[in-house]
Design a protein that fits this description.
Blueprint: E1 2-4, H1 17-24, E2 25-26, E3 34-40, E4 45-51, E5 57-58, E6 74-80, E7 85-89, E8 92-96, E9 101-104, E10 111-115, E11 123-129, E12 137-139, E13 145-149, E14 158-164, E15 175-181, E16 187-188, E17 192-194, E18 198-205, E19 213-217, E20 224-228, E21 232-236, E22 243-246, E23 251-258, E24 267-269
The chain binds ligand LADIRMRS and zinc ion.
EC number: 5.3.1.17
Family: Belongs to the KduI family.
Function: Catalyzes the isomerization of 5-dehydro-4-deoxy-D-glucuronate to 3-deoxy-D-glycero-2,5-hexodiulosonate.
Length: about 280
């Protein structure tokens, strides 16, 4: 498990491209036959990917979390961005087509990932500390709460699907969903915002191989950018904006944890005030 310690806005002006990438960009999540996770000390979130091979792939525990099994003190949200999968939780099999989201609560001992067919499943993982156990719930693509956002005229028309949230699947901390850009729209989360009460992570996917997303981070008046490829994730501290523009349409899994689960608790910034 890779450890990434927390940073503050004062660190941003002194960072060059390599340091920005090493602190906020997470690459190589999906390696066949492996679970790869990163521990960010921003709200103690663990994020990563599981890409089962020919054999079922268990979610291991790690010395860094001092737990007998991964979910002893944690909860996890899982979104399948690859081919159909199964996720088995304490012997119960959940069929996960592409785009499905599974919430697994604290206290589940065994989580096992497998391919459901010939294709390569790619399960994005986002885990936070949990104080109690909520039931494991599968949400199929299209079954979440959908919000239509933006406008084709400003190149930011997108469908935001809320899966784990205060009016949907219950969790201790995690708020999670998927946003899909409509064809011809390139901008996500514009106008941009921060939420000092929660960190957030994005996993960009369905980014064409010859395209990139220019992801904007930092305080709104002192921004920097990361050039992000398909199936790469970004860590957005609570004080940072998180917005991006693609060179083609794309989708992303967003997930948050922290002080509250109120999706609309955001501090928006007009683009005219950003620097
Ligand atoms: O398209 C969007 O806008 C988003 O998906 C925004 C994220 O969900 C977010 O930043 C929530 O705080
Ligand atoms: Zn946000």
């Amino acid at each position: 498990m890779e450890q990434r310690y927390a940073t503050s806005p004062e660190h941003i002006p002194g960072m060059d491209t390599d340091e920005l990438r090493s602190r906020y960009l997470v690459q190589g999540l999906f390696v066949r036959g492996e679970v790869n996770v990163t521990y960010t000390h921003h709200d103690r979130v663990v994020l990563g990917g599981a890409a089962p091979g020919d054999e079922p792939l268990p979610l291991p525990t790690y010395p860094e979390i001092r737990s007998e099994y991964f979910l002893e003190h944690r909860e996890i949200g899982i979104v399948n961005v690859g081919a159909p999968a199964t996720v088995t939780t304490d012997g119960e099999v959940h069929e996960m087509p592409t785009g499905a989201c599974l919430y697994v609560g604290r206290g589940v001992r065994d989580v096992v990932f497998a391919n459901a067919g010939d294709g390569q499943a790619e399960l994005y993982l986002f885990s936070a500390p949990a104080h109690t156990a909520y039931p494991t719930v599968l949400t199929l693509p299209g079954q979440g709460t959908v919000r239509e956002l933006g406008d084709q005229l400003t190149s930011n028309r997108r469908s935001l699907n809320q899966y784990i949230h205060e009016n949907g699947v219950k969790s201790c901390q995690i708020v999670m969903g998927v946003t899909q850009l409509h064809p011809g729209s390139m901008w996500n989360t514009m106008p941009a915002h921060t939420h000092d009460r929660r960190m957030e992570a994005y996993l960009y996917f369905d980014v064409p191989q010859d395209a990139r997303v220019i992801h904007i981070l930092g305080r709104p008046d002192e921004t920097r950018h990361l050039v992000v490829a398909d199936r790469e994730a970004i860590i957005s501290p609570s004080w940072s904006v998180h917005s991006g523009v693609g060179t083609a349409a794309y989708s992303f899994v967003w997930a948050m944890a922290g002080e509250n689960q109120s999706f609309d608790d955001m501090d928006g910034f007009p683009v005219t005030e950003m620097r």
